[in-house]
Write a structure and sequence with these properties.
Elements lengths: L2 H4 L2 H17 L5 E2 H8 L3 H13 L3 E5 L2 E4 L1 H13 L2 H16 L3 E7 L2 E8 L15 E3 L4 H8 L3 H11 L12 H14 L2 E4 L6 E9 L5 E10 L7 H15 L8
Antiparallel strand pairs: 1-3, 2-3, 4-5, 4-9, 5-6, 7-8, 8-9
Helix pairs in contact: 2-3, 2-4, 6-10, 7-9
Length: 258
Amino acid sequence: MTKKDSQTPSIQVLARAFSLLDVLAAHQDPVPLKDLSERTGLHPSTAHRILNDLAAGRYVDRPEAGSYRLGMRLLELGNLVKARLDVRDAAIGPMRELHKLTHQPVNLSVRQGDEIVYIERTYSERSGMQVVRAVGGRAPLHLTSVGKLFLAYDDPQRVRAYATRTGLTGHTRNSLTDLPSLERELAQVRRQAAARDDEELELGVRCMAAGIFDDQGKLIAGLSISSPADRLEEAWMERVKATAASISASLGHQGQTP
């Protein structure tokens, strides 16, 4: 007996319904019953019966006789799932894995106004670095790797307004305190889809970061590694980018980072 033959009728119906939904999801325009039957391997009468049940539950719509498309109920359910997705919950596991690989503090930050706010961190005493800014701490956008990500993906006029508003105050001799220097740095961030802080916020501390994007392609957070300046390894950047990409994917982001 094959696995397919051993399935209960209710499981078979579910599998067939999901196969029909998958075909509809692959098409923007309504799909005729004949095409649905051919693509799923279901007899037209079987496909028609299942589609009628799905239409009754608003999982599919019939814009015209004999054609079907995904229904609004799926959008409603998708929005419920999206609303329950939390970037911190999605990030904490991958952050711990990245920390195990690098043995350096791994930070999750979001933008609030002209600052970033640290909302999660994984670290241990083995890193040899004192954590100065704890969870809930804040820092200026232009002095941090994650902050540069948010500025890099912002509108140029808004970046200039930020520079005027804040005066680009520096914290160390390495801080970027003039607009032309900052704009050159942001152009590099966009090219590399990654950002760095070269002892610009704190002397002796360097950071590297990559962005976390939602299902609409919007930058919603940044993932960064902080390290003593003489210990930061460039090879870690690819791991940071890969980890950020996996978190983005878990939040529904598809395709390449902007």
